[in-house]
Amino acid sequence: MSSSNTLSRTETWRLLVLVGVGVGILVNTFQGDGAPLIAAGSLSIIAFAVTFSMVRWLGPVFIKAGLKGKDMAKPRKPEIPETMGAVCAVVYLLSLIVFIPFAFYKDIVAATSGGGNRDVVIEDQHIEHGRYLHRFPHGKLASYLSGLLSLQSIIILGIGDDLLDIRWRHKVLIPAFASIPMLIVYFVDFGVTQVVVPVPLQRYLGDFIDLGSSYYLYMAAIAIFCPNAINMLAGINGIEVAQSLVIALLLLFNDAMYLAPVTPYPHPATDSHLFSIYFLLPFIGVSAALLCHNWYPSKVFVGDTYCYFAGMVFAVVGILGHFSKTLLLLFVPQIFNFLYSTPQLFHLIPCPRHRLPKFNASTGLLDASVTEWTIPPSPLVATALDTLHTLRLARVTKNESGQIIESSNLTLLNLWLVWMGPMREDRLAWHMVAVQTLCGAAGLFVRHRLALLVFNHDNRMFQYLV
Ligand code: UD1
Ligand code: MG
């Protein structure tokens, strides 16, 4: 029998086989022209195996360092390691770094006339003035590195937050700073700040509107929103990672539609979508490994580090891949959760430190958690809460004299429990996976099909798919 922080014999063998397969494919890519897509796939298989084992091994080390949290929805509230997203994030960063030579292998071979071919004669004038090189795609490398830099900054913030528990209003702007390198590269590399105007409005506004510098503010807002939005839709086992995996898989599906043979090559959007796939594949690898330990009943928590890191991966691919508006369509549950939370975030309604659903030890089920009104709400807030209650958008409890004493916390998880009644934690997590998948699939459908009703064309030329 294996103890809780070692790998069992079967697990060890399976992981070794996975690593073997990954390394085998990776080595093979060098026989062709580097095949970056296949290299990214095999690196993510290796990243899965490494993350899976490291998360298991490092549990006691994290607990010893004080990185632990109480699982509130269990009868005994056991303490388990927290901040395991940091392991995930580090493995991810290392995979992205290892991937650089693969992504640029073809160009490196061309630039050094044969993969570091040492017998190329260096002539006198070349020693003086350098050699004539194949035009290496520095621009693409800059995009890639700026994404990496933004991710590194956000991971530092995440770890700081998990160690020191920073208040959200203090940390909310940090992702905006982290996005600066990316926005600069966007400015130099792409620079498009125009948005297409829907056909019915073109008569008044023209075909495009140039948003100018506000487009950069919009992109910084995306970089602030995505990490925080994932962190707010949290609190039950597995949900942070599961929602991120669903979003990543849907993005991957969307990217794949821009590749040959679905979309004929060359197509102007192919490169941006390839870029996005390179960032998403290892993310899916490390997240799937973390989910194995974090799904109900959790053996580890992911911490804010994972939520910020995951959100920033999406912001990076959305911004540098030039599809930030499509990205937002995949964030519909998170956007709803944020808007629905605003009365509590802005303290119109008291906001307790935790708003996660409440565990009922006698039934073993979760129900909506509540805010208790020790001082009765103002008449305006009371009317608003009454209206929400009538519309079944919140649950309000009153005393005999008709005063509000409790109102359910305004999060999507609690609202779902108000609608569906109490349920088990893993069932609620599955429901959220379904909501995320359905909303995301509908979002992509709207993006590629219904948008044709109000725009002249889809940039992917969808008719090739059907
Ligand atoms: C955010 C939410 C907060 C929610 C918390 C849950 C906002 C503004 N903040 O805060 O309302 O309660 O996430 O993660 O919306 N935990 C569990 N089971 C889980 C996951 C977490 O019990 O499956 C508990 C653990 O005690 C863990 C703690 O939540 O230690 C982590 O909370 P933390 O990530 O620090 O909360 P915030 O991100 O600040
Ligand atoms: Mg959190």
UniProtKB/TrEMBL annotation:
Top-level taxon: Eukaryota
GO MF annotations, alphabetized: glycosyltransferase activity; metal ion binding; UDP-N-acetylglucosamine-dolichyl-phosphate N-acetylglucosaminephosphotransferase activity
Enzyme Commission number(s) from the entry: 2.7.8.15
One annotated Gene Ontology cellular component of this protein: endoplasmic reticulum membrane
Annotated membrane topology: Multi-pass membrane protein
Keywords, sorted A to Z: Endoplasmic reticulum, Glycosyltransferase, Magnesium, Membrane, Metal-binding, Transferase, Transmembrane, Transmembrane helix
Chain ranges passing through the membrane: 12-31, 37-63, 84-105, 141-160, 172-195, 215-234, 241-260, 275-296, 308-332
Top EC group: transferase
InterPro entries: Glycosyl_transferase_4, GPT
Cofactor (UniProt): Mg(2+)
Cell compartment(s), UniProt: Endoplasmic reticulum membrane
One Gene Ontology term from the biological process aspect of the record: dolichol-linked oligosaccharide biosynthetic process
Pathways per UniProt: Protein modification; protein glycosylation
Swiss-Prot/TrEMBL catalytic activity: a di-trans,poly-cis-dolichyl phosphate + UDP-N-acetyl-alpha-D-glucosamine = an N-acetyl-alpha-D-glucosaminyl-diphospho-di-trans,poly-cis-dolichol + UMP
Cited function: UDP-N-acetylglucosamine--dolichyl-phosphate N-acetylglucosaminephosphotransferase that operates in the biosynthetic pathway of dolichol-linked oligosaccharides, the glycan precursors employed in protein asparagine (N)-glycosylation. The assembly of dolichol-linked oligosaccharides begins on the cytosolic side of the endoplasmic reticulum membrane and finishes in its lumen. The sequential addition of sugars to dolichol pyrophosphate produces dolichol-linked oligosaccharides containing fourteen sugars, including two GlcNAcs, nine mannoses and three glucoses.
Assigned protein family: Belongs to the glycosyltransferase 4 family.
Protein name: UDP-N-acetylglucosamine--dolichyl-phosphate N-acetylglucosaminephosphotransferase
